[in-house]
Design brief:
With 272 residues, the chain is an alpha+beta fold. The protein has one domain: outer membrane lipoprotein receptor (LolB), chain A (Clam), CATH 2.50.20. It contains four helices and 14 strands. It has a 14-stranded mixed sheet. A hairpin with a 3-residue loop joins β7 and β8. The longest helix has 18 residues. The N terminus is likely disordered.
């Protein structure tokens, strides 16, 4: 028998707290905003092969043929180090001019190499020197024994390749390492980042490193040109680095810009 005398069960009403609803909307909107701010994952870099990497080097070689700019040069060897500001002009195949400046912008040294001739002017000493542009003479000012053509190419992000018979490409987390193997134990190791940009080149004879050049501070406004170049000869513990500041790439530079003349009354001396 059903007991109809029981009181009906009361259903408890749930009341919404009115201030909570706008907060929920605000939280949802904030979550959507933050989600939209999360950067989309970068697409993976394509895997590059040896042919593509060597093509990048050829592109660099043809892209930069001359330069005019202000640089900071630092040289170092076992006898010590030195640093100075200089105005630098470069033109392939082997023309260069450097004007080393003092603290107040006065020229302390002017150096020019063209057509195998090296000329040096020392204004404060009233001296003018001239001789063949041998690597040994150039090393007196750069600490690294290079020909004028080699110096210009390396400073313009153009790395000469050795003649090689075999090669080996290795892919690692940071990029690629390409090893070129030539005759008589000559080797060249090229380091690239993941995008195929050349970062470093090293030249070996057997296991002995002869020359290393490293590039950094790349600038997209300069077609990916590196603002820093460091050249090292490990055997002599000698190096020089260039840090470009105010740079103009591929300017038209007249041949006369690379020809120094002795000041009036100054006798030309032979470079020792």
């Amino acid at each position: 028998m059903i007991d109809v005398s029981r009181q009906p069960t009361r259903v408890k009403q749930i009341r919404f707290n009115r201030p909570l609803f706008p907060r929920l909307l605000l939280f949802a909107g904030l979550s959507l905003f933050l989600a939209s701010c999360v950067p989309a994952p970068m697409p993976p870099q394509p895997i590059l092969n040896e042919q593509i990497l060597l093509q990048r080097l050829q592109t660099n070689a043809s892209a930069f043929n001359s330069l005019r700019g202000m640089t900071r040069i630092r040289t170092e060897d076992p006898s010590g180090s030195a640093s100075a500001r200089q105005v630098l002009l470069l033109a392939k195949p082997g023309s260069l001019r450097a004007e080393v400046l003092g603290p107040f912008g006065q020229p302390l040294l002017l150096l020019a190499a063209r057509d195998g001739v090296l000329k040096v002017s020392l204004p404060r000493e009233q001296r003018f020197l001239q001789g063949a542009a041998t690597p040994e003479r150039i090393a007196r000012f750069t600490r690294v024994a290079l020909t004028a053509e080699q110096l210009v190419r390396l400073a313009l992000y153009d790395v000469p390749l050795i003649a090689y018979d075999d090669s080996d490409l290795t892919r690692h987390e940071q990029g690629y390492r390409l090893l070129l193997k030539g005759a008589e134990g000559r080797r060249q190791q090229l380091e690239f980042d993941a995008s195929g940009r050349l970062l470093k080149a090293s030249y070996f004879r057997g296991e002995e490193p002869l020359l290393q050049v490293a590039y950094g501070r790349f600038d997209d406004d300069l077609q990916g040109f590196p603002r820093q170049v460091t050249v090292t000869m490990p055997e002599q513990a000698a190096s020089f680095s260039l840090v470009y500041s105010d740079v103009e790439l591929n300017p038209e530079l007249a041949a006369e810009r690379f020809i120094l003349q002795p000041p009036a009354g100054v006798v030309t001396e032979a470079l020792p």
